[in-house]
Fold:
Amino acid sequence: MSDMITEEGVSRRSVLKGTVAGAGALAVGGLVGAGTASSADAAATKKVSVGSNNSDPAPRKNDVAWVAAAKTAGFDVKLNIVDHNTFQNQINSYLQGTPDDIFTWFAGYRMQFFAKKGLSTSISDVWKKISPNFSAGYKNASTGLDGKQYFIPTTWYPWAIMYRKSVFAAAGVDPKTIVTWADFINACKTFQSKGITPVALGDKGGWEAMGTFDFINFRTNGFKFHMDLTAGRAKWTDPRVQKTFANWATMFPYQNNNVLDLAWDGAAQLVLQKKAAMQVMGAFHASIYTDPADLADLALFAFPEITAAYGREAVEAPIDGYMLSKHASKNLVNAKALAEFIASDKFGKAVLKVAPTSLFANNKMPKPTDPFARSQVDLVNGCKYIAQFFDRDSRPDFAGTIFQSALQKFLGGGDPKAIATDLQAQWDALPPA
Amino acid sequence: MVTGKSSKVGNSIAISILFVFSLVWMFPIFWTLLQSLRPYGDVLKFGSVSWPHHLNLHNYWTALVQSQMWRYFINSFEVAVPAVVITLFLASMVAFVVSRYSFKFNVALLMLFTAGNLLPPQLVFIPIFRLYIHVWVPNFINGDGVLYNTQLGLILIHVALQMGFATFVLSNYLKTIPKEISESALVDGASVWKHYYVVILPLLRPALASLGVLMTTWIYNDFFWSVALLSSGDKRPITAALSNLQGEFFTDYNLLAAGATLAFIPTLIVFFTLRKQFVSGLTLGSTKG
Structure:
């Protein structure tokens, strides 16, 4: 994953290769199309249905933009937009029912889970053509446990510590000097002495605090242990988990005291209103900033180092993208052709027009010019390892109800030893995935 | 004198308790209305518990036009109206048979219909889902050729689940109607169909009206089945589509309040126009049964 986001130069040869492969694909598509009864229709418009969880106004615009671009490329895309949270909760029955040919999903364990269950169609042959567009890290993130590819990465965003420059300047804290955990706690003390809540945290939804857990866990115990733990290869009863909880507890005195009453946006508002100094959040923290002046004041820095040996080598940067459903086998040629389109820079360029701060996986896309977006790319470029976020790196049935309520218990003052024992017992009780 | 005074005191205590309770019941509605009129920016600036500085109908406009909620209202009616009509039609037939004809399985049949009511939908959801992805329908109803993800499927499940209660109520109501009417119809040589259609159905009208009101509100308010049996966002009824106003990360609760207010307006209209039937519907069949 180390070179995931590096925007390596593309040699002329690889571009040529890509073009030739693309042309080949078209020819093959044409041949297969000719074999079917409605060959004329297939050649005119390639009908594909796409299920999307991009129900929010901004991502909805992205969908509309790329679907329009796909139309000029000869696709007739039927878009089925379902609100984000229902889409997620329904995914199991959706994929077993009559899903759309292509659907929005996430890289990592969440993708592998459904690939393994046979609910997704492999697109390894598409990947042979599109590989030049992506660095190896992305290919790994798109690969199932059986070594085949199931995923087309499109956009991503990182998690970091979000803050307002003006608040830091007023308190006389320079974020560049916050490197180690001791630096971080010192900064917290400074903010507290000035009457500002140092760290805003809301975990009403159960998932928000996973980000903080992930960071503290891989900063304390290293990336490998973190990935082993989320995937169930390491045990929750391991003493290293207790170290993570103990380190987190040192942060408690500097958090707002209504953690379980606030959702992420409630906590983010504390930062926006300058009542709190920092929030460990995804870059979507910016979405509640409606005033451009506030937005210009927003910045981020990397989560501080805890164990020196692991430094700040890892970061959370979930990748969004598309998968083919099992159902797509009825419309395979068109669905794969559209998957190829989504992997091309035509997709990215269409989205970029309506969402200029998006960060793309495709290395043919230009570098972002917006300073906040640029800082996100720099943050991830400096990292050796990339995690997808707890609920994308672990089993859905574990991350969903079990781990969320455990975190809420811990934040509510529960005993970390009992919580860890309980977590392992619940993991062991899960049906084999 | 003394008793009169104490009853006066008792009255005022009762009224003040009722007043407090009505406030408790009114508060969420009032709060929803207030929030729906406030722009999100106002809340962001002053906090949600604060004196509103701006009040307008902008959220309603956004919900109805920008989020296209009106489409989902149409979906709701497309499901609720046929479901209610079919349920009442079939239930009245069953009620007619079990209350007017005596045969061996008469009571067993009524019990079967009533017992179906006792199964919670959460219990039967998975078998029904499995069934729906295998039941064939012609391609013009659903391109995928199965009952899952069709409004027809949703209508059928409502009919199946509401039939029990409707049959129970209607057969109880029929028992209050003198048997002599039926007997004279039979003496005059009416066929079974004529007996049902010309004699019984007009007599059932008040019961059908109240049941119709109740069922319309129940089916309109359904959330569970519309989420469980539909996978296309554009086919959903209003209750399920309300979550379209919730974001992935960020939810504008003021907009959501406006959407929720819009969603309960049809129920209010149905209630106030047919209030008489609604109340009689609640006591239907309670006099004899």
In short: The interface with chain B takes residues 51, 53, 55-56, 59, 80-86, 90, 93-94, 96-99, 264-265, 269, 272, 282, 284, 287-288, 290 of chain A (CB under 8 Å). Chain A is about 50% helix and 15% strand.
